[in-house]
Amino acid sequence: MRPVQPVPTLSPDSRHRRKRHPLHRRGTLALAALPPLAAGVIWAVTAGPASGAPEPPAAAAGPPAPALAGSPRLYTPLANPDAYKQALELGQAGGRLGKDAIRIIGMVRTPHAVWYGDQTPAAVEKDARAVTRDADVDGSMPVFALYNIPGRDCSHYSAGGASNTAEYKAWIDGVAKGIGKRDALVVLEPDSLALLPSECGQGNEKEKTDARYEEVNYAVSTLAALRNTRVYLDTGHAGWHDVASIVPRLVKGGIKNATGFYTNASNYQTDEANSWYGKLISSCLAHVDAGGKAEDCPSQKDPKAEAQAWIAENVTTAPGRMKHFVTDTSRNGKGPWSPPADKYTDPQDWCNPPGRGLGVRPTTRTGDPLHDAKLWIKTPGESDGLCLRGTPGPKDPERGTVDPKAGDWFPDQALELVRLANPPLLPPGHAGESGGAEPEDASAGSGIAEGEPDPGR
Prior knowledge:
By secondary structure, the protein is of the alpha/beta class. It has a domain at about 75-375 and about 410-420: 1, 4-beta cellobiohydrolase (TIM Barrel, Alpha-Beta Barrel). It is built from eleven helices and nine strands. The strands form two sheets. It has a seven-stranded parallel beta sheet with strand order 2-4-5-6-7-8-9, covered by helices on one side. Strands 1-3 form a two-stranded parallel sheet. Its EC number is 3.2.1.-. This is Glucanase.
C-alpha cells in the first residue's frame, strides 16, 4: 500500500506571474453582486498576491547551502484558476458560503510550492526564471517541488516524468539555468527515495533503482551548486519508513551535498510526528556520518525517552552542522484519517481522505534549530486522484462522488480543508469560526501570507 501520493501542479508559466486574472475582465459589475466583504477580498486576491516589506533574504553560500538565515518571506504564486471560480460562486451565494469564499481566498493567498514536471528543459527553464524573478520583485523566496523523475509513482496515479536518465538530467539543467543566482528552496522529487523502483514490482528493478540514485545525485549536485539554492531530499513520512530504513537511502541519494530533507509531502501526519521524525533522521545521519550504523538508530515508534537518551549518548554534532529538514503542513490540521475498520480492502488513507483541515501556515520561524521551515508543499484543494479504495469504482465510496483526477481542483475537499483549518483561517471571534490552535506567528491566524498586509484593513 502506498502511504503517500504527491500530486504535481503542472501549471502554465502565466499561472505564476503577476498578471491580471481573468476575473478582472468581468469588471466591477460581477463583484457588485457579492456581499461587500467577499467582493473586497476577491478583488484584492485576483489582483495578485500582495507584497509587504520584504524580510531579510537567505544568506548566500556555496554548496551545500546553509540552513535558512533570518526569516525569509515565502513566495505566493497565483492559485489554480478554479479556486478563484469557486470563491466567486461562494461569494455570490452570501451567508455562510460567503464566509467560505473568504476562507478559500485566505487559502490561496498563503505561500505554497510551485510544482514542475513533464515540461521540456526549455519550458521549465523559462518558467523557473519567471518565478524567481517575480519573487525577487517582492523580496520573497519561492519553493519549487520538482516532480519529473523517470518512473515516478511506480507509473500509477501520478505517472509521468522524464523518459530516461539523460532526459532527466537535461531537465534538471533547465531548472538550474532558470533559478540561476536567485534565492530558491527545492523540494526534490517526492517519493523518489521513499518509493524506489525496486518496490514497484515492474521488472528490471536493480537497473531502474541504480538509475534512480544516479538521477537524484545528479539533481542534488547540480542544484546545490547554485549559490542561493537550498535542496531537500525525500523521506516519505513518519507513518511510512522507519528511520533506519530511510537514512541509508538518503546517504545513497547524496544527502551530503544537500541542505537536508523534507517529510510529510502531500500527507497528513501531525506536526509533532513530523518534527520528531525529522529530529531522529537528522540525528541518525549525524551518527552515520561519524562512522555509526543506521541500524543502531532509534525508530520513531520507540519510546521517546529512550530515543532521547540514545541521541544524548551517540550524537555530539552541533545542530548547525547537522542536516536540517522542512515539513509539509498543508493538510495536516486534523492529522491523518483513520479509515473505518474492515470496510475497504485498500483504504487509500492518503487519497483525498474526508474531514481533513489545513495545517499551520508556512513559516521559517519554527523554534527548532534543525527544522528550517513548515511549508505548504502540496497545493491544498487539488485532488490526489481517482480514489477507489479497493472497489471497482468509478465513485470514491467514502465520498459518493467521482474524485477529480490528480492535480485538478476539488471543490468539496477545498471546503473541508478551509472549514476545518487548524489554526482557523478567519480571525478568532469571527462569526461562524470556532477556536483552534494558536498561530505560531502573527501572520498565521488570518490566512494572509507571511509579511503581507491584511486586505480587510
